[in-house]
Amino acid sequence: MSEFSFELSEDQLQLQKWVHDFAEDVIRPAAQEWDQREETPWPILAEAAKIGLYGWEFLAEIMMNDETGQSSPVAMEELFWGDAGIGMAIMGSGLAAAGIAASGTSEQVMEWVPQCYGTADDIKLGAFAASEPDAGSDVSAYRTRAVYDEASDEWVLNGTKTWITNGGIAEIHVVVAVVDPELGSAGQASFVVPPATPGLSMGQKFSKHGIRASHTSEVVLDDVRIPGRCLLGSKERLDARLARVREGQPNDRQAAMQTFENTRPIVAAQAIGIARAAYEYSLDYAKERVAFGQPIITKQSIAFTLADMATEIDAARLLTRRAAWLGKRRAFVNAEGSMAKLKAGRVATWATERAMQILGGAGYVTDHPVERWHRDAKIYDIFEGTEQIQQLLIARAISGMRVE
After folding, report:
1. pLDDT tier at 4, thresholds 50, 70, 90
2. Is the pLDDT of residue 60 over 70?
């Protein structure tokens, strides 16, 4: 394992430029249109798949084949610098793939992850279904049930999931469900629902404040029967884990949190991409906009705001790169992944708001993209663990105590 360094390799620099060029040339020109349409940008996905940006091979290359952990945040920052909604449409299937990789066997990974993407000529989507109408941050409150039918070697799933990226339109759904309600979050497991399985349907599709080019909806599971092999991991391993918990032995981290912990530095990098886009745009605007006979950047109130923006974005990036490296080594000590996500989400919402303020009235209208970036940024204080959940995880880590 390499030592921690912020210096990017030649391959990582090429990756950074490759993704940036796609974001600049393909994503940005289409961003406003797909934000207004509030639809999955299939033509952009097709372009991304054509060059290899949308596909499981790309995910494997930046996440599994990089011992430094830096390739993934580098790529995410550039992609979401282009547009967060389209970026999420491109990367949304990655959460399902991460869920499979976190809990599945190597055989399951090889079988199901490619199906989350399809091919460049036949694009598919993946969805990770964890949150429920009455259980988001409180993962122990999930109610979706999975009951094993031993006679047919099938699992039967019932429940409703909500806020699901690609929900109902995905080829592969990865569903977190309760197998033993008495054990709380320890009694959960993850399942793959294969394509066209009867009983799975899309509920309400949500019209969102931001990241509108990314499809978000409910997923309804009504007596969904799936083969026993669709339990991620194995029945033997699940039974052994449940038995240990019932005996009072330490529990492995439960299914949803295991996936989220692996993705928090990635989410942080996405937020940084949005913040950087707003900073760069407002910096250029401040140099060009003349008021009282001078460019407004010559005014301390504007210049100091931009100085703070640059500093805060860099601080968030440093935390995120460190978290990605620690995550690769499984070496988190003080919830550094949560630190990165907490800081980056705060910076994104603050920096985009400051960018709007620098532009004044121009920042409030759709003629300029900062109002869209401001709307997109807010979700990073909410999803994959709210700001308060990140604080809770950090507090528990630094204190070694059960902070409630």
Report:
1. confident
2. yes
Q: How many residues does the chain have?
A: 404
Q: How do residues 250-281 score in pLDDT, each as one tens digit?
A: 765 554 554 566 689 999 999 999 999 999 99
220-231 pLDDT, tens digit per residue, is 999 999 999 999
- The residues carrying an active-site annotation are 384
Q: Which domains does the chain have, with CATH numbers?
A: 10-120 (1.10.540.10), 126-246 (2.40.110.10), 255-399 (1.20.140.10)
Tokens at 325, concatenated: 């490296």
